[in-house]
Design goal:
six-stranded mixed sheet; Rossmann fold; transport; ATP-binding; 25% strand; Putative ABC transport system ATP-binding protein; four-stranded antiparallel sheet; alpha/beta; transmembrane transporter activity; nucleotide-binding
């Protein structure tokens, strides 16, 4: 892969099509004097099963880019392909189907339903697909089985984030999109959460795209993309990703 905006559509290692391909994507908000260019001709590709960390300061366009990949926002220009499907050409109904079938979201502030138990929060998402993962097996793997009947208010921040990860995975999602998943956690819990994300994306063979402002997290990635003022200023592979537990900041 190269920096400078060239789209790589084939993996150099496997000669297989990239799982996520972004080409020439631009996005602005507002009009006239209030117009803000958030993304400028952004192009990159992520291999299937890779961990890609998108890093940048607040306002660099990270979350806007993630939302576009997830079908939550539409760019002004450019195309996005996921698993060979052009996301940017889908109708509203098609986008709903795409999100159900392919994408799991993990947000900074969990977005759990407060009046539902842990298991019920996951069950709501499981009902969106025909063949969800086994909820109890998933909860056991994430260390949440003993908390399955608790409500979100009875959980720690780390436990709520584990529940959010289970909810994202239960559909069998092949793309896991994480928007500052450690932003609301302390350092120790953040490292535990990163270890968990790294483990589950490899165990369930999901492509992980994680946005963060924390440069230290890039050391665990297979691919690092840096955004600055809506432009890609770095796009590089990491031949020797570090274990999440070995990160230091």
């Amino acid at each position: 892969m190269e920096t400078g905006g060239r789209l790589v559509t084939m993996s150099e290692k496997t000669a297989e099509p990239a799982h996520v391909s972004v080409e020439g994507v631009s996005r602005h908000f507002g009009a006239g004097e209030s117009r803000v260019e958030v993304l400028h001709d952004v192009s990159f590709a992520v291999d299937r099963g890779a961990c890609c960390v998108i890093v940048g300061a607040s306002g660099s366009g990270k979350s806007t880019l993630l939302n576009a990949i997830g079908g939550l926002d539409s760019p002004d220009a450019g195309t996005i392909h996921v698993a060979g499907q052009e996301v940017t050409s889908l109708s509203p109904r098609g986008l709903t189907r795409y999100r159900r079938q392919h994408v799991g979201f993990v947000f900074q502030f969990y977005n759990l339903v407060p009046d539902l138990t842990v298991r019920e929060n996951i069950q709501v998402t499981a009902q969106l697909v025909r063949r969800p993962l086994d909820i109890d097996d998933l909860l056991r793997h994430l260390g949440m089985y003993e908390h399955r009947l608790k409500f979100p208010a009875q959980l720690s921040g780390g436990q709520q984030q584990r529940c959010a990860i289970a909810r994202a995975l239960v559909k069998g999602s092949d793309v896991l999109l994480c928007d500052e998943p450690t932003g609301a956690l302390d350092r120790h819990t953040s490292q535990q959460m990163l270890e968990l994300l790294d483990d589950v994306h490899r165990r369930y063979r999901a492509t992980l795209v994680l946005v963060t402002h924390n440069e230290a997290i890039t050391a665990m990635a297979d691919q690092v993309i840096e955004l600055r003022d809506g432009l890609i200023v770095r796009n590089e592979t990491n031949p020797h990703p570090r274990a999440a537990g070995d990160l230091d900041w």
